[in-house]
Amino acid sequence: MKTIQDQPVGRDGNLVSPWQSGGSVTDQKSIPDPAKVYDCIIVGAGITGITAALILRDSEKEVLVIDAHNAGYGTTGGTSAHINTFADTTYKETESAFGKEGARLFAGAVNTGFDIIRKNIEAYNITCDFQEKPGYVYAEDDDQVKQLEDLYEGTLKVNVPISYVQKIPVPI
């Protein structure tokens, strides 16, 4: 039977991220039996795909996770390993497209995803230096100040905790 060898984690960029520095993300695994039937196939072995697979497995589903490269290769591998509770789409944009309730549901989904990952770290005793830290968004010009105001107001509307500060604790 063919096997996938344990090897350093590759990534689609030039910089080495924390996801790559510790060797392989997975143990040696057998290539799946092509005759086996799965309830679900997850395409993408980043943090989202692995989390989805774990939830499905815990729901007694037969799950296969596949990736074009290796676990943590793409977006997950390209991050500084931070989990963000702000999405690229702002709550104001979400409200504009889906209404107030849609924006609230979106905020709930973002925070539920964070909670699932945090709980998995605790439940599976994953050694990953997980820490909760405040995040900061800042403006460099008047247009960005307006964007920050929109971000702030939209976030307040969906009851996500947020504060306005005049200085951030990192040099920019």
Structural class: mainly alpha
Global morphology = elongated
Strand content: 5-15%
Query: Percent range for helical residues?
Result: 25-40%
User: How many DSSP E strands?
Assistant: 4
C-alpha-based Rg, rounded: 19 Å
Question: Could you give the distance between the termini?
Answer: 53 Å
What is the string of SSEs from the N terminus onward?
Answer: EEEHEHH
Q: Counting H and I runs of at least 4 residues, what is the number of helices?
A: 3
Given as residue ranges, the uncertain stretches (5+ residues, pLDDT < 50) are: 1-7
Can you summarize the main beta sheet?
A: 2 strands, antiparallel
If you had to describe this structure to a student in words, what would you say it looks like?
The protein is mostly helical and 172 residues long. 35% of the residues lie in helices and 7% in strands. It is built from three helices and four strands; from the N terminus they run E-E-E-H-E-H-H. It has helices at residues 47-58, 91-123, 142-157; strands at 3-4, 29-30, 40-43, 63-66. The strands form two sheets. A two-stranded antiparallel ribbon has the order 1-2. The chain has a two-stranded parallel sheet with strand order 3-4. Strand 3 (40-43), helix 1 (47-58) and strand 4 (63-66) form a beta-alpha-beta unit. The longest helix is centred in the middle third of the chain and has 33 residues, at 91-123. The protein is elongated. Residues 1-7 have low confidence and may be disordered.
